Give the backbone structure.
Amino acid sequence: MFIKTPKPPYYTVIFTSQRTALDDGYSELNDELYAEAQKLEGYYGAETLRNAEGYGVAVLYWRSMEDIQEWAKYQKHLYAKKLGKDKWYEGYRVRIAKVEREYGMD
């Protein structure tokens, strides 16, 4: 499903990751984080996918850099980042970008 975003500019956080085989609460915490993010005024939504080998991409859409920075300080997010580094990810990358143009087909 395509996330409905406003007219640019807005911001995106692109999180690419390679998962380990261990779940150990990952799915539940991930679902909780997305539910919490949806309550934030500056969060527009996310588009995510993960293949059978554990490689995933999550693209999160935000109103501003300030909103992204606030989310980065959110305690449950900080806790999830620590667990991700300790046991859920073999590797990851975070990229933050300003969306200046958008077009497509509905």
About this structure: The chain has a mean pLDDT of 95. The helical segments are 26-37, 65-73, 75-88.
